[in-house]
Recover the amino acids of this structure.
């Protein structure tokens, strides 16, 4: 039985998730790679962390938007 | 006008050879004293402020912050980010463009300041446990009422039996009371990383308990 997909997604955890400290330390590098390439293959642990809908994911989206806007 | 060049290893250890021209330009101009550096700092501050204003406005509606407070937060975030950038210039290794590295500081400052600002709201519950809000938060279909009741009861049992007191406290604050993780970290005198880890472990335990009892499917994707 799985009648609550949003809760199911929320409770899922990825063992590759590196946590906030490492993700934030590498955020600028990751964003530049995302803007130009496939960051998920190069940094699977950071990708896993940013998918987890925490505050780092919000910071990532914000920084990526700024960089993409600046690139025009 | 002449500028004094600071020996490169006192501000930036070295300008990485692979750096793009724009980033190398930023490093060069920030490594001197005089009007060139002042102009570059003013330009950088202007860019940081614009980003902070946009980001504060974007997040404000959800956090219910309005008026001049927003502008104050943006100015503080830009000023603190600029100070952090100049203080840590020697740590920039050219792994990204200089501006991306610099912008990261202002985004993180906005997050930190909004986390602290959250507790100025007088109506924030921390200990209340409003389990009735869960269906709305996770979008349960009203047609599935009996299934919802069963799953909700199972989740509540798992929260009570599987989590440590600290994990339970974090789960209740974030999931039931809607406290942002950064704000909770401030209240607990902890860090974003530590609270995230606590919540990560809580999520893993709860999912395992619900799957073991048939309420959620077993995950065979390598995640848990």
């Amino acid at each position: 039985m799985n009648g609550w997909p949003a809760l199911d997604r929320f409770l899922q955890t990825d063992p590759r998730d590196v946590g906030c400290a490492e993700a934030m330390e590498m955020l600028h590098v990751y964003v530049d790679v995302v803007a130009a390439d496939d960051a998920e293959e190069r940094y699977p642990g950071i990708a896993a962390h940013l998918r987890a809908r925490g505050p780092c994911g919000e910071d990532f989206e914000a920084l990526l938007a700024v960089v993409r806007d600046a690139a025009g | 006008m002449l500028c004094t060049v600071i020996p490169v290893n006192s501000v930036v250890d070295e300008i990485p050879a692979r750096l793009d021209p724009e980033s190398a330009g930023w490093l060069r101009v920030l490594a001197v004293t005089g009007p060139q550096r002042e102009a570059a700092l003013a330009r950088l501050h202007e860019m940081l402020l614009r980003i902070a204003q946009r980001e504060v406005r974007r997040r404000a509606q959800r956090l219910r912050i309005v008026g001049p407070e927003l502008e104050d937060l943006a100015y503080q975030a830009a000023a603190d980010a600029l100070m952090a950038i100049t203080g840590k210039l020697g740590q920039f290794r050219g792994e990204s463009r200089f501006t991306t590295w610099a912008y990261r500081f202002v985004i993180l400052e906005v997050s930190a300041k909004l986390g602290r600002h959250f507790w100025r709201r007088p109506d924030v519950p921390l200990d209340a446990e409003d389990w009735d809000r869960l269906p709305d938060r996770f979008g349960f279909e009203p047609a599935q009422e009996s299934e919802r009741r069963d799953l909700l009861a199972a989740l509540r049992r798992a929260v009570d039996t599987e989590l440590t007191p600290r994990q339970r406290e974090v789960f209740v604050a974030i999931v039931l009371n809607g406290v942002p993780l950064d704000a909770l970290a401030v209240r607990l005198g902890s860090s974003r990383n530590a609270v995230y880890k606590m919540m990560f472990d809580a999520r893993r335990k709860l999912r395992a308990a619900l799957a073991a009892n048939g309420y959620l499917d077993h995950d065979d994707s390598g995640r848990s």
About this structure: Chain A touches chain B at residues 1-4, 6-8, 10-15, 17, 19-21, 24, 27-29, 31-32, 52, 54-56, 58-59, 62-63, 66-67, 70 (CB under 8 Å).
